[in-house]
Amino acid sequence: MIEQKTRPMPKSRARGRPREFDPDRALDAAIEIFSERGYHGTSITDLADATDLTTGSLYKAFTDKRGILLAAFDRYRSVRSAKLETALAQGANGREKIKAALAFHAGAAHGVSGRRGCLVVSMANELAAHDPVIAERVAKAHAANEAIMRELVIAGQADGSVSTSLDPVAAGLLLLFLLQGLRVVGKTSRPEAQMLAAAELASRILD
Question: How far is it, in rounded angstroms, from Cα 160 to Cα 141?
Fold first, then answer.
């Protein structure tokens, strides 16, 4: 009897190459769509399309749509804070750093980024009134920006570039109002020149 050689069974071919999951890239896409459409105006399908991930992958990583929002909010704050810090580093004194902060926010308040809007402003308007977790995050974001502006006023007064007649607390709050107001008005497609002119005029309160 001739013994037949058994051939090894062929390995099954993968049905498709799995998508690589990059949390930061997914959250950056989520930031854009949440900022533009708001939380309630964004569906999980919208997020899946924007991130190029399946809804199952999103749920596995972030539990639900609210989980994606919270992670996106934290990512947004981290990225924006790092970029602002870089902008402030260009200033040689307190006044120049304040002007750099104003220009930074004015620069984001026109064109595509202006129409998309700020995620902090969007969540403050839409969810903070009835969501304690969101309200806390928004409050911390505002407090951090207010503290930055207040400390820059104090630093400017110390180095002689900002008038010592200014109340640093009131000035810091006023500058916060302007920074957030720029992002709100930016949703209406104001031109860059107007935004930068407003930021430049605001810096005169430092005299």
Answer: 29
Q: Whose CA is closest to 70, among 1, 141, 21? A: 141
Measured over the CA atoms of residue 185, residue 191, residue 192 and residue 196, the dihedral's sign is negative
pTM, two decimals, is 0.85
Three-state DSSP class for 113? helix
Residue 109's region, left for phi above 0, alpha for psi from -120 to 50, else beta, is: alpha
Tokens of 200: 């430049």
Identify whether the C-beta of residue 150 lies closer than 8 Å to the C-beta of residue 168.
yes
Question: Distance between CA atoms of 148 and 81, rounded to whole angstroms?
Answer: 10
Please report the sign of the dihedral spanned by the C-alpha atoms of residue 75, residue 76, residue 78, residue 82: positive
Tell me the pLDDT tens digit for each residue of 155-193. Answer: 999 999 999 999 999 999 999 999 999 999 988 888 889
Distances (CA, A) of 196 to 15, 81, 91, 165: 53, 20, 17, 26
In this prediction, residue 66 has a pLDDT band, given cuts at 50, 70 and 90, of: very high
